[in-house]
Amino acid sequence: MYNNDELFKKINHIEFYVSSAKTWSYFMERGLGLDLKAYSGLETGNRGKSSYVLNKGDINLVFSSSMEKHSEINDSISLHGDGVRDISLEVDDIEFTKKHLESRNIKVSSIKEEKDDNGKIRRAVMQTYGDTIHTMIEKGDYKGFLPGYREEDTHTADTGIYKVDHVVGNVYEGEMDQWVNYYIKNMNFSQLVTFDDKMIRTDYSALRSKVVKYNDNIVFPINEPAQGLKKSQIQEYLDYYNSQGVQHIALKTDNIIETVSKMKQNGIQFLQTPASYYDTLTERVGNVDEDIEELKKLNILVDRDDDGYLLQIFTKPLTDRPTVFFEVIERKGAKSFGAGNFKALFESIERDQAMRGNL
């Protein structure tokens, strides 16, 4: 039957609670090059909320807004602004997973079964850091996204992203280990890597980070702020989100130069990197296949580990609050998370923090 290695399969979808799902859907289509895959709203019999599912490859991002005066969605937006509510995990056997979690004293909702012409699914919900949840879904042979959604077939210009590489959470200072242990001891995740505040710091700010993963499809770095001369980007997030929560989602591509070029043409704004970063790039990371001048023009960062190298870049915050953003990442063998880029990245973020008056 099932064993401890079969609690979870992959990320099924990531749901945002937002003030206007239709606006976010348009932004994701035109900016990131995602396709509208499914829709739920008044036209499908959903009187409470409107949801748009944006897809490319294994990426499924859901944007939901409320059509009611008083609702969980509106309460969330009032407190946090637009942001991630649910990192949904697909499971093989919802009863097995629920029983395992409850044996670890994790509260799990009752299992709810939903049906339509495409078959049936079963789901249950558990809490994680802040107001973030994991909806666990057993899909079986269900055809389609989820019951209650109308399938759509809108195609936009492809930017090359196709998978969620990792999802990063920010938690309060002193609580990172608690949440790392939550995933390891209760959900059978393993710890992949640790970064302390001596590794991840600038002259002004610092953070600590640990990465937990269940398999190659479910990877969660967890950050906490550390004491520095000024406010770290993690603390800025916590202050404006008014809670712990998802800081960013890393989207994987196999050609980051092409992807970032297209996204910039689409109006996506990325963090800027000082030109001096590229003066000693090959000395730090060795030779790379890409043209250094092209990387410099696009502000793409490079780091290397024992398995190869990676290329990455981060968007500016997606909302008026300095909270959630995206990362674009290409892996050329590397399994790490760009530790060698943290100083350059933080300095870029700090320049924007200073302009906001929050450094």
From TrEMBL:
Cofactor: Fe cation
GO biological process, one term: L-tyrosine catabolic process
Transmembrane segments annotated in the record for this chain: none
Alphabetically ordered keywords of this record: Iron, Metal-binding, Repeat
One Pfam match: Glyoxalase
Molecular function, one GO term: metal ion binding
Domain of life from the UniProt record: Archaea
Chain ranges of the VOC domain: 10-139, 163-316
Stored CDD domains: HPPD_C_like, HPPD_N_like
Similarity remark: Belongs to the 4HPPD family.
NCBIfam families (alphabetical): 4HPPD
Protein name: VOC domain-containing protein
Organism: Ferroplasma acidarmanus Fer1
